[in-house]
Amino acid sequence: MPTHITLVQGDITEQDVEAVVNAANSSLMGGGGVDGAIHRKGGPEIVAECRRLRAERYGSGLPTGAAVATTAGRLTARWVIHTVGPVWSGQEDRSELLASCHRESLRAARELGARTIAFPAISTGVYRWPLDDAARIALRTLRAEGEGFAEVRLVLFGQRSYDTFRAAL
Ligand code: ADP
């Protein structure tokens, strides 16, 4: 069965899926963009669990390309899967790390038994990854690794992101 990938233009915090992916930073303590929106709307339970994860498993932070799940607090979703995207570099090819974010997030969701998952466009905000290249990497990885999910959704914020992902799909 091919992976069922859907694209929507919207806000990641408003998705009726079991797991939503957070474009986090390695501190897991919150930030701007997707991260800020998830913590604002999900409430303090999420950061409390992140703090425990830092204390117990990730003393020096969640590594780039890795993913870890917490409660989703007050969001509609059941879980937030935090992943740390690579910062874009013109000198060094970090594509494998961006692919790893998608792969590891799917793995974490699968371990929880989630059947539906929504991703933002990881690394394309503050981390400056060019949208068309990020779209290709995300779609290729989700298509190859998303087997078994009822739905793998990409949530694009704004028309330009949506159009770029649509063209890549
Ligand atoms: P990163 O640090 O990985 O670049 P950002 O959160 O800065 O992560 O941005 C990732 C992408 O998510 C950008 O394309 C940004 O426009 C988009 N974005 C920002 N807020 C939201 C939101 N609430 N829902 C979905 N996408 C969002």
TrEMBL record:
Macro domain location: 1-169
A Pfam family this chain is assigned to: Macro
Superkingdom classification of source: Bacteria
Record-linked NCBIfam families: PRK00431.1-6
PANTHER family, per database record: GANGLIOSIDE INDUCED DIFFERENTIATION ASSOCIATED PROTEIN 2-RELATED, MACRO DOMAIN-CONTAINING PROTEIN
Record's protein name: O-acetyl-ADP-ribose deacetylase (Regulator of RNase III), contains Macro domain
Organism classification: Bacteria, Bacillati, Actinomycetota, Actinomycetes, Kitasatosporales
